[in-house]
Design brief:
Number of domains: 1
Radius of gyration: 16 Å
Number of strands: 6
Order of helices and strands: EEHEHEHEHEHH
CATH architecture: 2-Layer Sandwich
CATH class: Alpha Beta
Shape: globular
Length: 178
């Protein structure tokens, strides 16, 4: 099994932690999608995403996180949610410009998670296995993420409408070839 070195995952009490080193994008987020889904279905309602060593994020990754932030927000429980810690200004702006920092909380208070962050960094050592996705699986993940981004903020419709239409057309043409 191939290992994706970009994602280290684990659990600290009721919080699922993801530490990203490298880039987080549509090409390597399939395993992360499965991890977050398993954590959510297992009752975890608090995700902390450590971006200190993250070189860049794309809209698919952001849409994946926003999907869970939205689900947690619908439950209206305190301490539920998705938090970004140790983000570069560039990565934070990628989330903010899509208007998603309302539910994806970008922590500027480095003290809030400092003890836990140090403990996690010392002990989180389970690399997330890289998920080999078929073209269809990747297209569905990218499509879902971008539809969520469009639903979340009307301004995102103009940004992603063409992407969504192209993915749908591509998926439709692939179905005809099956």
């Amino acid at each position: 099994m191939k290992v994706c070195e970009a994602f280290l995952v684990g659990r600290l009490g009721p919080v699922a932690w993801v530490r990203i080193a490298g880039c987080a994008n549509q090409h390597n987020s399939g395993g992360l999608k499965d991890f977050l889904k398993a954590q959510f279905e297992g009752g975890c309602r608090h995700f902390v995403i450590d971006l200190e060593e993250c070189k860049g994020i794309d809209s698919t990754f952001i849409g994946l996180l926003y999907n869970y932030a939205r689900k947690m927000d619908e439950e209206s429980e305190p301490n539920n949610g998705v938090e970004i810690i140790s983000s570069s200004e560039r990565n934070a702006k990628s989330i903010q410009k899509l208007g998603l920092d309302i539910l994806i909380h970008i922590q500027s208070d480095e003290e809030k998670w400092s003890k836990e962050q140090a403990m996690v960094r010392e002990n989180i050592g389970r690399p997330l296995p890289e998920k080999e996705q078929t073209r269809q699986e990747r297209a569905e993940m990218v499509l879902d993420a971008h539809e969520i981004l469009m639903e979340s903020n009307k301004a995102n419709e103009s940004r992603f409408r063409d992407v969504v239409n192209l993915i749908r057309q591509d998926m439709d043409s692939d179905c005809g070839n099956v």
